[in-house]
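Following up on my earlier thread - several people asked me to post the actual chain instead of describing it. Fair enough. Here it is, all 210 residues.
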Amino acid sequence: MKCKKILNEQNISMFTKVEMNVFFSLIYVVTENPEVNEIELKAIKKLSRDSKNGYNDLKKQISSINSKLQKMTFVGEDGKKTPFLLFETLHVSDKVLEVKISKQFEYLFIDLFNEKKSIAIFDLEELTMIESKYSKTLYRKLSCFKRSKWFKKEFDELVTELGFNSKYKKKDIKVKLKDAIKKLDVYFRDISISYEKKTISGENCVIKWK
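Reply from S.P.:
Thanks for posting it. Predicted structure:
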C-alpha cells in the first residue's frame, strides 16, 4: 500500500478495528487508481475481509468513519494542525460508494508510484488479518521502520495513539501492550519491548525485532 508517510502517522485510535480495515481499504483503492470516483461496496468488503456483516453494516461503518474524520485534527509535516476533512464526497448509493478526496489533501496521493516521492507503508492484506485493534496500529507504525528494525516512542504518546482507556493503570497497559506486540511476531521476527527512562516521571517505549 503506497501513500505519503504522514497519512500513516495520524491518530485514528477512535476507529474500531473493523473501521480501520474499511478505511485503509478505501485508501488502497484510491492509491491504486487516483482517478476513481465510484467503488462497488463488494470490493470494499473483499479488501477489508468483512464477510460477517451485510451491506447495511458496511454503510454504517463508512458513515461512522466519515463522521469521526470530520472531528479529527490532521497534523501536517510542518506540525500545522487542520481539520481532517479528507473526503469531499463519501456517499453510498445502493451498493456503490461515491468517493472524492478533498483538494486540500490530494497531495497525499500524488506521484504514488514514484519511489522517490512515496513510500510503501504496509501490506493491506496483513493489516486486515490482524484481529487486535492495538496490534493493527502498532503494525502500521512499525512497518515504517522495517529497515532500521527498531522503534522508539514516548510512553504516554504511544498510549494515546493506540487508544488505550485512560482509566487503565500503567502496569495494566504494559501487559496489554506486550500482548499486542506478541501478536505481531509473525511479521516482525523476535519482536520485543523494553522501557528506558526519559525524565523523572516519564519513559520511552523501545520496540526491536530481527
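The CA atoms of residues 135 and 183 lie 7 Å apart. That should answer part of your original question.
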